[in-house]
Amino acid sequence: xxxxxxxxxxxxxxxxxxxxxxxxxxxxxxxxxxxxxxxxxxxxxxxxxxxxxxxxxxxxxxxxxxxxxxxxxxxxxxxxxxxxxxxxxxxxxxxxxxxxxxxxxxxxxxxxxxxxxxxxxxxxxxxxxxxxxxxxxxxxxxxxxxxxxxxxxxxxxxxxxxxxxxxxxxxxxxxxxxxxxxxxxxxxxxxxxxxxxxxxxxxxxxxxxxxxxxxxxxxxxxxxxxxxxxxxxxxxxxxxxxxxxxxxxxxxxxxxxxxxxxxxxxxxxxxxxxxxxxxxxxxxxxxxxxxxxxxxxxxxxxxxxxxxxxxxxxxxxxxxxxxxxxxxxxxxxxxxxxxxxxxxxxxxxxxxxxxxxxxxxxxxxxxxxxxxxxxxxxxxxxxxxxxxxxxxxxxxxxxxxxxxxxxxxxxxxxxxxxxxxxxxxxxxxxxxxxxxxxxxxxxxxxxxxxxxxxxxxxxxxxxxxxxxxx
Length: 470
Ligand code: NAP
Fold this sequence. Notes:
Shape: globular
CATH superfamily of the largest domain: Aldehyde Dehydrogenase, Chain A, domain 1
Oligomer: single chain
CATH class of the largest domain: Alpha Beta
Bound molecules: NADP nicotinamide-adenine-dinucleotide phosphate
Helix content: 40-55%
Structural class: alpha/beta
Number of strands: 20
Distance between the termini: 51 Å
Number of helices: 16
CATH architecture of the largest domain: 3-Layer(aba) Sandwich
């Protein structure tokens, strides 16, 4: 796989980049390590100022960045612009809060003296990122780790190289030392080589189980810290007393946003019997209203998928689902375009042994299930190998929150769409991975939580000091 921008709307190969060399990798690690040493004595507040500069620079360059993202992977240009703004919001938040979050924490103890945990940087961190949010995925890792003082090396997806390159250039243009975020077009062997290097102390991956397993295996071998943000088959649960205007207004959007290529897309609609027919009819109507076209045209509402390969994979999954007995309740009409469009589809009657029941379909296909009780809804939501996010609609938000907390995922939003914001922890359980990005939790992902216990003298009369010295 080479690093290439191939516009999925025109199929034009816009640019091809060579792989990074051994020397480039060595230089990035060496410079990163040197910067880590320098960061140790730099006041955190100085990095906060630089991060605010990054936010300002991103906003200044938003149009150019949005266009690059759309040409790289096809998303609607309005969605690309929203992603750039979200990156700026994340940068501003960590710039404002990072220093406070990293303050030492005092611990009450029976040990002699005063105990506290200090939060230190670990060293160079590698990030391996996917194409579906080419900028946001970088910022989720970069902002907190920059505040901590961990320099980063970015290995982005092979099909979003221009977005990766430009993002890192903009960070440098904002005054951030170049070695704080180095984009390298690494092949898989280089990823393993980087993980093996003692100067690299962690790896953050967002992507599929395939990528996650390979990287976690290498990290396990070399005992490096990891966070894994992997796939999802998020449930969208509709209880019998839900406000159906809200439900129908949101359901199609959360499935078709970014052409359905979102880890937290609602991929399984689990709907109570009394509102099921209404739900399905409205979902069909709304799927039928999308406007396919040039993703750079603001009037377009259905974008192409990110690559021909992704489209072909999804078509195979749809064929497989139908061959295994699912009903095609709706599919958008033929689209007259050479672009990598996938016609949005709705599946029902998915049996437990159908691959569509438990395999993530990363594109505009909704699966809809009828249930007869809340317990059945929760059981179905949980009968899945993934556990990333979810949405639940209920006439009573408090009751909704109680049902939501029985769902085995890392995040659930009640009566609203899922919003990824810097103050909210993001991540999942089961095959969706482990660890959290963003928020006070994500801030600590790659930190040495060092205990310091300070005493004037040893005290052998203290039971904790006198009994066991471990
Ligand atoms: P992917 O194939 O795993 O790719 C993700 C990244 O991992 C890319 O940079 C890829 O590089 C790299 N990679 C893959 N295999 C590797 C290996 N053996 N060694 C080293 N690096 C490797 O994921 P994808 O299919 O493109 O992305 C979509 C998936 O990501 C979906 O499952 C989606 O749900 C998930 N996702 C999760 C989150 C979350 O926060 N939980 C967010 C967004 C997406 P190449 O491009 O060079 O192969």
